[in-house]
Amino acid sequence: DLPRPERIYQLVVDGLPSEFAPLRTLDEQEFAEAARAALTRRRYRRRIAFVIPAAVLVGAAIVAAFFLTRGSGGITVEPNSVAIIDPEKNAVVDTVLVGAMPGPVAVGEGSVWVANLEDRNLARIDAASRSVVRRIALEATPTGLAVGEGAVWIVYGRLGTVSSVDPQFNVVGEPIDPGLPSAVRGSVAVGNGAIWVAFDTSFLVRVDPASRRVAATGVVTGDGSSAIAVGEESVWVANAVHSTVSRL
Fold first, then answer.
1. Which positions ≥6 away from 175 have C-beta within 8 Å?
2. Cβ within 8 Å of residue 168, ≥6 positions away
3. Closest to 144 measured CA to CA, from 190, 179, 193
4. Euclidean distance between the first and final Cα of the chain, in Å?
5. Cβ contacts of residue 47 below 8 Å, gap of 6+?
6. Dihedral angle over CA of 198, 162, 160, 10, nearest 10
7. 41-45 — which CB contacts under 8 Å span 24+ positions?
8. Residue 155, strand partner residues
């Protein structure tokens, strides 16, 4: 569940053990597939590429209706790209190269927004031209993304903070820090006149979009909050550890 590759070092000191058991990892089959994926990534790295996560394709299905349809089937989706799916044809009609290790996707303010985990930036896609018109640098790895209340909202899971991007000037605002324990993941949703942020430490934060301040914090029943949505006059939080959904 690391958001990005990390180097591991072994320190050898005279008089101390230097032989250890293998690092805990996936089972043999999954490990072999991960190794093949890593080797494939190296071939693409010169083009600033990474293996495209399945979540991007799912996100692309959500934004498909936002794009004008063009072309027909038979299109290959390259790594680090967003696929544009025509829901009527049920086929990929175009792709947009966005950046290294794309993650959350959101639509709003006249654009499609993609958070790139490896590049630590936000790619802004123009729907008409199907091209990236701006890449906005971020202060950390983005783990959540939503658009609404006149801004683009980004969550940095490890920092436990939230930032807003002004879509008019493509400027990142000052981070909003709720002062909660450190987390790994964070997700965000917009609705009912508020910004809702869920961290995998089971904390839920409500941000006032006008003042850009934390309005309230609480605890969600269930561990490992991994996704959040607003609808039906409720806030819904998916809890990965307990395999439950909390309704607030």
1. 139, 156, 159, 161, 162, 163
2. none
3. 190
4. 27
5. none
6. 120
7. 41/79, 44/79, 44/80
8. 144, 162
pLDDT tens-place string over residues 184-225? 999 999 999 999 999 999 999 999 999 999 999 999 878 889
Query: What are the pLDDT digits (tens) for 161-191?
Result: 999 999 999 999 999 999 998 889 999 999 9
Sign of CA dihedral 65, 70, 72, 76: negative
Tokens of 61: 């299905």
| Alpha carbons 59 and 82: distance in angstroms, whole number | 8
Amino acid at 68: L
Side-by-side strand order, sheet with 161-166: 144-148, 151-156, 161-166, 171-172
Q: What's the pTM?
A: 0.70
